[in-house]
Amino acid sequence: MPQVAAHHEIETIKRSRAHSATARVAYICRTTVLDERTGETHRYTNADGELGAVQMVGYEGSPADFANGLEAAEKRKDAQVGRSSILALPNELSDTAAARVVLAYQVQLRERYGCASVSALHRKPGNTHAHIVEDSRDADGNKITVLSNKRTSSAEIEHRRKTWADLVNAEIERSAPKVQKVDHRSLERRAASGDLEAAQRVSVPHLGPAQHAAMKAKKKTARLPSWVRQRISEARELAKAFTELRAAEKAYQRLARVKEAIERSAPKAKPPKRRDRGHEI
């Protein structure tokens, strides 16, 4: 059975980029958090009803207290106060099963780094995912550097992604055996290992947001009546002609200004001297 990608994105919460743990926790938990360091209030609501389970590991208290604790532990203006992850989940998993996977991953983080963390499950139509905010220090207050060190970060992120994929696949086997399993590797790596389905997907060119928007607009236009498409085409031609006319007018104005400047700077011609030929007899 072909496997889908296990999306796992990790970001450092940096003050140098105007990030804060309080703002991030308020967002993922859809709550209000007062930043005790700055006095700023971050307020988010669950108006769309997408918020699922909120879980904490390694900390006894509210998410707001946890976020303020992360901020209070760092004094530097450019400090890294924590890490934030976004992790995709199969939509077919129940809320209970999805929350179980996220909690198991948080326990893994606690065992590997000694850090506390808070998570929030979000479920949108066709998009189930979890957010995790974790401490950048271990239980003894020491900075966790394995993820910020260039020599170790790549291997560590690879380990985290594989751990997440393994936990998701274990839950799929447990509660949803008909669901496709996930793979933490990129499409290119999977194709190189002989995955034909991944190779076919790699061969399809990627279209960015602009190309998708243009294609979508083209499809909408194609469904319009012919006379409407004709009027749209005429309006586009008029707009193009008007743009060209404006450009020509601006070019003419520039030439006129250049000509005027040349005339002002050119030396004035002196009138020819008259010869006195005397009186003719």
Summarize the structure.
This protein is α+β, with helices and mostly antiparallel strands.
Description:
- The chain is an alpha+beta fold and 281 residues long.
- It contains eight helices and nine strands.
- The chain has helices spanning 21-29, 63-72, 95-113, 153-175, 187-192, 196-203, 209-222, 226-265; strands at residues 4-5, 8-14, 32-34, 41-43, 51-57, 80-89, 117-124, 127-135, 182-183.
- The strands form three sheets. Strands 2-6-8-7-5 form a five-stranded antiparallel β-sheet, with helices on both faces. A two-stranded parallel sheet has the order 1-9. A two-stranded antiparallel sheet has the order 3-4.
- The radius of gyration is 33 Å and the shape is elongated.
- Mean pLDDT is 84; it is low at 198-204.
The average pLDDT value, as a whole number, equals 84
The string of secondary-structure elements, in order, is EEHEEEHEHEEHEHHHH
Largest sheet: 5 strands, antiparallel
Unreliable stretches covering 5 or more consecutive residues: 198-204
- Work out the helicity level: 40-55%
Total strands: the figure is: 9
**What coarse outline follows from CA principal-axis ratios?**
elongated
Q: What is the rounded distance between the termini?
A: 123 Å
How are the strands of the largest sheet arranged?
A: 2-6-8-7-5
How big is the Rg?
33 Å
Count of alpha/pi helices: 8
Note the beta-strand portion: 15-25%
Q: Structural class from helices and strands? A: alpha+beta
